[in-house]
Amino acid sequence: FNVINTVLFIGFTHWFATAAQKIYPDRPEKVELIIKPKFLDEEVISIPTVALDQVRHEFGRMGQIAHTMLSELLEATRQKDKKHINAIISLDDKVDILEAEIFKFLSKIRQQSLTEEESSIHQELMTATVNLESLADVIETDLSGLIKKFIKKERQVSEATRQMLRDLHGEVLQAIDFAVQSIRDNDRTAAIKTINKKDTIDQLVGKLLARKSERLGLGEMVELETNRIEISLIDKFLRIYSLTRRIAGIVSPVKENI
Description:
Structural class: mainly alpha
């Protein structure tokens, strides 16, 4: 099988390396990177099992940054601190850099002779990395943008809504942790925990939307605008959770349509 596998991937290897170079071209040497890979060691490229395990750990670093972004966003919102929000947004640059480095490393691994299992893990790590980068982008662009708008318009949120949003934030934040753990440690239990959060998150979202529906009935212009922003926030939290489920679904023993 290994001979067949090698033949099948000869063309793909060249394509993958070329694509990775086009998407993530080498940066000018004079540019100082704000973050560098910690676990990716080209000395072990010839040992795919070890190299793939290093990718898992670098993925974990990406996940920790994404966790920090969402975690600190709550405090920045509470303080209405735009500078803090901008600092959170800038963290996405680190996620982008690590994603690029992981893909370059994966392209070099792909040039080795891989077993069927190693090829499968290689594809899974590609998929997980792309989804994690997309998750960070939602925080950077969508969530942060909505919160900036909320602060600019000086909208007030009721204590009941504020608490439900905090609860939703907490559940989604924990889902990120479990999803990252599932890939980093190849942990099926963590993957299941991510997927099993669906009921709790759906209940919180249902309560929030029911409350927003009631408030819309008041017909006040300011209330309408506030509700629109809050509903958009809920949608972005759901988007983030959906991405954690995709990541966790890679290693979950129970495959579902996510």
